[in-house]
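Reopening: structure tokens for the adenosine-5'-triphosphate complex, inputs below.
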Amino acid sequence: MEVLVNDVRKFYSNKLVLNIDKLRFPKGKITGIIGPNGSGKTTLLNIIGGLDREYTGQVIYDGKALTQGIYRNMTLVTQKPYLFRRKVYENIEYPLKIRKVNKQERIKKVQDIIKRFEIEELQDKKAHLLSGGESQKVSLARALVFEPKLLLLDEPTSNIDPESIKIMEREILGFNEETKGTVLIVTHNIEQSKRLCDDVIYLEEGKVGN
Ligand SMILES: Nc1ncnc2c1ncn2[C@@H]1O[C@H](COP(=O)(O)OP(=O)(O)OP(=O)(O)O)[C@@H](O)[C@H]1O
Ligand SMILES: [Mg+2]
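Re-run output (same inputs, fresh job):
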């Protein structure tokens, strides 16, 4: 999915926190978003992800405004992921269930992603009891399992150990290569952006810089 951001402005009280004239995220590419704390990265992702509708301007997805159909094909992994008070396995299965994927196919896909993420030992744990890093891993697995056309990642590896970062980066790259899904990734890790991204944009005080 291609994403265009046109004249998007967002205020909190009187403060302009996002001020973007034009920004294009090309289909099938991985774009990094970097910038200091408070520069508007999460605000931008929440707007593109359809979670924040309180802004002026337009976000255009493959030439169209946001619809239910587009919404179903994208997902946002937040900085502090929210998981249901159910088993990890059920959390990962959920996006497939709501998209009416049949049981056999669901089992196949969930087992496959659990294996790829090397989280077999977590699958029967209650998701709300996981550590911060474990939750982030499970949340990325839950996002990738239904092969979204647009994947929005807000600092997905901020609490992650080096070995697990390798796994997550491998899976993000693999997802992008195999499905041509578009990825936007907020990161403070410049080395990570070099490893993953086709292009990187820099945000400062809500504006795109160089
Ligand atoms: N709910 C809110 N109410 C008021 N101000 C907010 C709210 N959420 C964010 N802000 C402000 O908007 C600005 C942008 O915040 P945002 O969370 O997008 O930054 P960020 O680039 O994601 O930062 P970080 O790197 O710390 O995650 C900040 O100045 C922040 O204080
Ligand atoms: Mg943020």
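The chain has one domain: 3-209. The domain at 3-209 is CATH 3.40.50.300 (Rossmann fold). Marking as resolved unless the reporter disagrees.
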